[in-house]
Amino acid sequence: MDTSVPPVFDDYEIEEEIGCGNLTRVYRARRKSDGQRVSIKLVMPDFTTDRVFVRRFLEAGSRAIKLDHPNIARVYEVTEREGAVYVIREYLEATCLAEWIAQQGEVPVALAVNIVRQLASALDYAHSRRMMHGDLNDRCVYVDESGHVKLADFGLVQSVAGTDLGGSQSRGIRLVQGMGAPEYLAPERVQGQGPSRSADIYALGVVAYHLLAGHPPFVGAAEEVLEAQVYQAPPPLHSEVPAVSPTVSASIARALAKRPELRYNTATEFARAFAAAAEGIAPGRGPVQAGRPKPTAPPRKPPTVLIGVVVVALVVALTAWLWNQVGLGERLREQLDLLLPSPVPVVSPPESEPTSTPTSVAATPTRSPTRTPTATPTPTATPATEVSPTLTPPPTAAVSPLPPAESGPPAFTNLVVAEGIGANNTPLSPGATFTPARRPLYVFFEYRNMSPTMRWGHVWRRGTQELNRTVEQWPGGWGAAGRAYIFYTPDSSYLPGDYEVQLLINDQVAASVTFKIE
User: Fold this and answer.
1) Which of 306, 299, 290, 286 lies closest to 240, judged by CA?
2) Which CATH number does the domain housing residue 376 bear?
3) pLDDT-derived band at 332, boundaries 50, 70, 90
């Protein structure tokens, strides 16, 4: 394979070409200075003649560099040099979602929930920084052998819109006026609106549908798909896949609502509803049996939107009967709240002006369906040494709320260090000793009796060296009691040594936990 590239890449040793998309040619390479493997996305020469496109592409890439999250592919550099426009980003030892689904066959509901949870975490993190993806689809989502998910290419497709390149089909561009992949495009995007949080949530709903059905809700020629996105209701998922319950189907259907205000307010809210629906219908169920053939033809057109209304009405009626008959009351009431639209419309933040990443930012909290709302604090800190801290966006699975706290002082309790996030935001592989790794370590904790009048914070230490200190006001939207987690993502790897994480209330250490890297 010809791996020749422009001399601008003299700092990198090109190994091979690994892909060629609508916009870029992709190479696997190693950085000569440190041997780190990277991906180089070189923009096709036809696109670099449009200066509006180049300017937008560089702006989008520069904003993506600031995103640091375990479920987002890191962007290291975006540059125009000697006539070449390129992005250098993290190399992913993973498979794109389209190929992964083809290899998996039918995807168990629990596995689909886990993938959606990770993508929701990435989206909410980016949305809190006014960064919309704009083209979430099965070619920019990557899944590795351990099930870890990463989302790539934030904002890049938006560079085409409004340029001389936007309507070109002669180059085989799989874009329509620079809007994105038709199968994942929200109705309002088809009608000309720009990227938004709600449109990204719609695309996440398509991902969930695709995972369970083996195909997006609408497939076929681009023109037919775009028309269906605006005018047709998606075929009910449980009619496509009988193994999927109507409640799970309804949770995804809300994300695919034609009107943005009827969708979930955040990606986190959708992931939580999806997880709760799956758990509520079949607690502890195993993987769905494989073997059902995937459809070879486009899904049939749904009769009318009225069917969806009838399905929701039946769910409501069945839930009410169960309340009276078997006393499931509170649990089913919580799940029903997750599935029904919120009366508060979505108001997306302005997205036209890029903003710099602050040293401490709280992501938009997720509304809780329970009486005591909970959400995960989301500060982002500035690194002081070789370890680069990044803190979580709102939780993306079913977060178990705590009961109303008894009177007493504010407190952080039950601190646990773990390697990952399991089902329902529980610690995955907890421990006290870990090996050096590039991936983050998580600290889970519970909080009680907190209020917006208090300041809270966290300090990460390695030995006697303070790595980072973040202090801010406790946001009222996080509630008085709940569960949360924070994490660090090192630039290269955790260094061996003894670590301590301190949680602060009003600038005083309220709780701490230690762990060792060896």
Assistant:
1) 299
2) 2.60.40.2550
3) very low
